[in-house]
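Notes from hallway chat w/ T.B., transcribed later so I don't forget. T.B. wanted the structure written out for a chain they're using in a teaching module, and asked if we could keep both sequence and structure tokens in one place. Agreed to drop them here.
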Amino acid sequence: MAPKAKGASPPAKSVVPASFWLAGTRWKVERVAHLADLGCCLRDEATIRIRAGLPQQVEESTFCHELLHALKFTMGVDSEKHDEQEIDAMGGLLHQFLITRGD
């Protein structure tokens, strides 16, 4: 049997859950057809919305970004104090960690 070429394995199962818990609150993850941004985090609804139909990698990265907003909200940080540059950087690192763990 020939060895597999690097990167030839099928895509892994998505890291995006249907729901998750933070500090006793159940958060939902919804895929929405008509969403202007790639995703959004709704604090008062405990919901992350992700634009439907995105490629898996983009969906996962968007989820990680929005998850960090959910964490900040859970810690009591208002949205105007969320540093988007920091959230983007940390979201990218979290996504990389999640998809490469176990390698």
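Follow-up for T.B.: The two ends are 22 Å apart (CA to CA). Might be a good example for the class.
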